[in-house]
Description:
globular, 0% strand, 59% helix, 3 helices, binds zinc ion
Amino acid sequence: MYNKIMNKDWHQKNRMPVNATDEQRAKWHIEHLKNCDCRKPTANIQKLIDKYRAEK
Ligand SMILES: [Zn+2]
């Protein structure tokens, strides 16, 4: 059984805020994708990422 590679160090330093806004979540996931490979974004998360990437 394989474990996905998790960047625990990054996760410890980058906690998702409890009541995160969509923008905070989008930014978190954008950084997460760059730094960690523990999970793939869901369709909803991907939409959020695309939205905030487009808006910049
Ligand atoms: Zn991760």
